[in-house]
Specification:
The chain is built from one helix and 38 strands. With 490 residues, it is mostly beta strands. The protein folds into two domains: 11-37 and 66-152, no CATH class; 156-489, Methylamine Dehydrogenase, Chain H.
């Protein structure tokens, strides 16, 4: 039987120093007012029919108003956080659960976050009374943009079915949405996905597709590359006419041979291959995440020999942005937070960064200890993340000038950090393999300061993860009877 939540075990937390910093309880005397979460406001566009009656011809959607809430505490001799905040933005977290443990941030059943909140006003009550002796209180009113509001549910990772007997190297899902009747069938974020596979023996590598959010998967009618060549990375984006979509698969860099990518506009019914690099250069991706696409005009590929490529035409042509000057070693992953700010990582702690979309790449400070870097992500234009082949997690708050380690999470310092993906400044996902290897999915809701390890189904190693939102992500990995697909969802 489901248990209704009450305010008895609720708790208010404050993160005054921003994402990826300590989260502090407001104490057991704090109280939360109604949390108001507006959705988009729809305004009809009226015309008159032939009888002069009003008819709705269209709708206009306005941006949602801010999320609002008020926190009330007892006034004490020492001024509280709520007094001393000033106008700086911060995060507020509200945790609930019938069995939640007080003063333990991770012990919640439901957590709600107001990221980038601003204090808009204060009300002091009962400061002076003629006869009564009521407690003096401080009520602080907060607001946050709708895009910085999140609600985190308990997650249950489950293994999805696939007939593929290959290792699964990378995964992607759509990030666009479309309502029914808006230029085609309705599409929700995370509905359409693809997975690229290793080859099994002297065979071609499959690409698996789903149209139901990852519940069922089937191989495309055609495979993108020749026999004995793995498909290592994949991206997708809306393309062409209304409702169109393109997938680009990256072939694992071949030793002393022609590098390639392939694109499909019909869910793998057919593929068009495109050469990259010289005929015997051996260029191409070396790991899942070696391709990154913001849209059809902003696509990057990193890989062998320290080369970084860029495409502005949906993957049809590629130009070299970085010809192995920063490092001659192989890049593993690339990530861009917008069209200008991006990073790529390689062995020996090498991090390449750009502020102009890759027109100029420069070397950031080498990550502490010069470890082999498997993965990278960005939670803001300044905050970079890198995970290592030795199970370490590093971050930089100054775009790669200095680095610090983040420890204390399950699996820290053992095995490998295989993939890390941040959705925004507060929400991030990670897959970590033990030395065995056994893969675990982790999630952060406070910008990377702490990580929650999810109870992940049995596996023999995970490779990559694709987060759709704060409560839904899919990870893929090594063969355990079949290729492993694990979806973490509510």
């Amino acid at each position: 039987m489901s248990t209704a939540l009450t305010g008895k075990n609720g708790e208010i937390w404050i993160q005054p120093d921003g994402p990826n910093t300590n989260v502090t309880s407001m104490g057991q005397c704090a109280e939360l007012s109604d949390l108001v979460v507006p959705d988009s406001e729809v305004t009809p566009v009226y015309c008159r029919d032939i009888n002069g009656d009003f008819i709705v011809k269209a709708e206009k959607k306005a941006a949602p108003a801010k999320v609002t809430a008020s926190v009330t505490i007892l006034s004490e001799k020492v001024r509280s956080y709520l007094d001393r905040l000033g106008n700086c933005r911060l995060a507020l977290y509200f945790t609930q659960g019938p069995c939640s443990k007080k003063n333990s941030f991770g012990a919640y059943d439901i957590a709600t976050a107001m990221g980038d909140a601003t204090r808009e006003g204060r009300t002091y009550s009962n400061m002076v009374q003629r006869e009564a002796e009521d407690e003096t209180t401080l009520k602080a009113d907060f607001s946050a943009y709708r895009s910085s509001y999140f609600q985190f549910a308990p997650l249950t990772p489950d293994r999805m079915l696939t007939a593929s007997a290959a290792n699964l190297d990378d995964v992607t899902f759509n990030t666009d949405t479309r309502c029914a009747g808006d230029c085609g069938a309705a599409i929700v974020k995370g509905q359409i996905g693809a997975i690229v596979c290793d080859h099994v023996g002297a065979a071609t590598a499959d690409v698996l597709f789903t149209q139901d959010g990852g519940i069922t998967w089937a191989a495309g009618a055609a495979d993108p590359f020749a026999v004995s060549l793995a498909a290592m990375a994949i991206v997708q984006f809306p393309f062409g006419s209304a409702g169109g979509r393109r997938w680009i698969a990256g072939m694992e860099a071949p030793a002393g041979a022609q590098g390639m990518v392939a694109y499909s506009d019909n869910m793998g019914t057919s593929w068009t291959t495109v050469n990259i690099g010289g005929a015997v250069a051996g260029h191409g991706v070396t790991k899942g995440g070696g391709l990154f696409a913001l849209d059809e005009k902003h696509i990057w590929l990193v890989g062998a020999a320290g080369y970084i490529y860029f495409s502005a035409d949906g993957g049809v042509t590629w130009t070299v942005q970085e010809p192995g000057v920063i490092t001659a070693g192989a890049y593993t992953q690339v990530f861009f937070i917008d069209a200008n700010y991006g990073m790529a990582v390689a062995a020996a702690g090498v991090v390449a960064i750009t502020r102009d979309g890759g027109l100029h790449w420069v070397a950031a400070t080498v990550v502490t200890g010069a470890p082999a870097l498997n993965t990278c992500s960005m939670s803001s234009t300044n905050r970079l993340w890198a995970g290592t082949a030795t199970g370490l997690l590093f971050y930089s708050n100054d775009f790669g000038t200095t680095w610090a380690g983040r420890t204390g999470w399950t699996g820290s310092g053992v095995g490998q950090v295989r993939d890390i993906q941040f959705l925004n400044e507060y929400v991030g996902w990670m897959v970590v393999n033990s030395a065995a290897p056994v893969g675990t999915i982790l999630r952060t809701i406070n910008g990377g300061f702490t990580w929650e390890a999810l109870t992940t189904p049995p596996n023999v190693g995970l490779n990559e993860i694709w987060p759709v939102n704060e409560n839904l992500a899919t990870a893929v990995g090594l063969v355990s009877v079949t290729g492993v697909i694990i979806q973490a969802a509510e």
